[in-house]
Amino acid sequence: MVVKVYGPAFACPKRVLICLVEKEIEFETVPVDIIKGEHKDPEYLKLQPFGVVPVIQDGDYTLYESRAIIRYYAEKYKSQGTDLLGKTIEERGTVEQWLEVEAQNYHPPIYNLVLHVLFSDKMGFPADAKVIEESEKNLGKVLDIYEERLSKSKYLAGDFFSLADLSHIPFTNYLGAMGKMYLIKEREHVSAWWDDISSRPSWKKVLELYPAPILE
Amino acid sequence: MVVKVYGPAFACPKRVLICLVEKEIEFETVPVDIIKGEHKDPEYLKLQPFGVVPVIQDGDYTLYESRAIIRYYAEKYKSQGTDLLGKTIEERGTVEQWLEVEAQNYHPPIYNLVLHVLFSDKMGFPADAKVIEESEKNLGKVLDIYEERLSKSKYLAGDFFSLADLSHIPFTNYLGAMGKMYLIKEREHVSAWWDDISSRPSWKKVLELYPAPILE
C-alpha cells in the first residue's frame, strides 16, 4: 500500500514528503491547485473539512495536519530510516517542545511573510506592508532565541536531527525567493543549522520532485 | 519528585494541570503574574525564553509548551490514570490530528476573543471590535466542522476522551465569562461534547484550585 499525499507543491505537505523520504516510505502524490481554489472543492472537503493541504490516505486510514502526519509516520516506522523522535521519552518531549515552538512562534510570522510577499498577487489580495514589517520583526525575535539555543545544541531538540528541525524546512526555504535569507545568514548558529538541515538529501529530493508554485 | 508547574492561574498551564490530574501525577504550582509582567523577568526567561506560560520542572527535566508537556506525561505514564492517547498508533495519529486542529484552527480565534474581550483592560491595550467580530465568525466556522465531526463520534478523536478534547477545555470555559457560550450551546453535538468534557472531575478540581484571574 502506497501512501497518497495531497498538495505536494505547497509547503505544509512538503513537511510530510521530507518525513516520508527520511523514513524510506513509498508514496505517490495528488496535485491540489490552491491558486485555482481546488482545496475548497466539495470532494476535497470530504477528505479535509477545513480546506487546507495536506491530507494523506494510507489504505483506509486518512489523516490531515502536517505535524500530526509526520508524528504518525515517525512513530509507526520508528526503527526504519532516520529516527526523528529521539531515543528516550525525555528526548521525544524536547522534540515535541520544539515542534510546538515551530507551530506557535515560528510559523505565524513566516507564514504571513510568505503570504504577503510571495502569494498575495497570485491569490488576488493586496499585500499589507504593515503585516510584512511586523512579521519580519517577530520572526527576527524568534530567531534570536533560536541563535541562543543553537549555540548550545547542534539541532533544536539536541544532538540529533528530528521532526522539530524538519518542520522548519519548507517555509524557511521561501526566505530565499523573498530576498530575506539574511534573517538566517546574519545569525551564526542559525545559519550553520540551516546549511545543515537544508542540505539533507531528503529535502533536495522533495524540492527537485515538487518545485514550489512560486518558482514555476 | 513532584512536578512543578508555572503559571497555574492561566489557561495554557491549565491544560497541563488537567492532564496531571487525569494521569494521577503529583504536582505543585508556582504563580506567575502575567498582568504584572512576571513572565518577562530574566529569571523566568531562563526557564522559558519566549516569556510565556507554562513551563514545568520535573527533577532535572524542564519542558515548555503546554501541548508538548501533555504529550510527554500522557506517554510517560501511558498505563496510569486515564489513557489520553488511544489504544493503537492509528488512534494516536487521530488524537494528534485533532490536537493540531485545536492549536491551528480553534485556538487562534478563541485566544483573540479572550484577549480582547476579557484581558485588554487589565493588560492596558484597547479592545479591537473588528478583531472580536472576525474571531467570533472564524470560531463559529470551526465549530460548524466540529458539529459535523461530533455528530458521528462522541469525542474528537473517536469514542474515547483524549488529549485532543482536553486541550480545548481551558479556553472554551472563558466563553461563559464572555457571555458567548451560545457558540457552543447552539450546536447540538458540540454542546453535548462540552457538557461531557467540562464535567470531568479533573477540570472541576483544577478550576476550584486555580480560579482564572478574570474571575478573582
Cα distance spanning the termini of chain A: 31 Å
How many DSSP H or I helices of chain A? 10
- The CATH class of the largest domain in chain A, by name, is Mainly Alpha
Shape of chain A: globular
CATH architectural arrangement of the largest domain in chain A? Up-down Bundle
User: Low-confidence runs of chain A (pLDDT<50, min 5 residues)?
Assistant: none
Largest interface: A-B, 30 and 30 residues
C-alpha-based Rg of chain A, rounded: 17 Å
Oligomeric state as shown: homodimer
Overall structural domain count of chain A: 2
Helix percentage of chain A:
55-70%
Count of beta strands of chain A: 4
Task: Specify the structural class of chain A.
Answer: alpha+beta
Rounded mean pLDDT score of chain A:
96
Largest sheet entry of chain A: 4 strands, mixed
- Beta percentage of chain A is 5-15%
Strand order of the largest sheet of chain A: 2-1-3-4
GO biological process, one term (chains A, B): glutathione metabolic process
Keywords (chains A, B): Cytoplasm, Detoxification, Transferase
Organism (chains A, B): Vitis vinifera
Domain GST C-terminal (chains A, B): 88-214
Give your account of this protein's structure.
Chains A, B: It is an enzyme of class 2 (transferase). Chains A, B: It catalyses: RX + glutathione = an S-substituted glutathione + a halide anion + H(+). Chains A, B: It is found in: Cytoplasm, Cytosol. Chains A, B: One of its GO terms (molecular function) is glutathione transferase activity. 2 copies of one chain form a homodimer. Chain A has 216 residues and is α+β, with helices and mostly antiparallel strands. Chain A has 2 domains: 93 residues, Glutaredoxin (3-Layer(aba) Sandwich); 112 residues, Glutathione S-transferase Yfyf (Class Pi), Chain A, domain 2 (Up-down Bundle), CATH 1.20.1050. Chain A is 56% helix and 7% strand. The first copy, chain A, has a 4-stranded mixed β-sheet with strand order 2-1-3-4, covered by helices on one side. In chain A, helix 1 crosses helix 10 and helix 4 packs antiparallel against helix 5. The radius of gyration of chain A is 17 Å and the shape is globular. The mean pLDDT of chain A is 96. At the A-B interface, strand 4, helix 3, helix 4 and helix 5 of A face strand 4, helix 3, helix 4 and helix 5 of B.
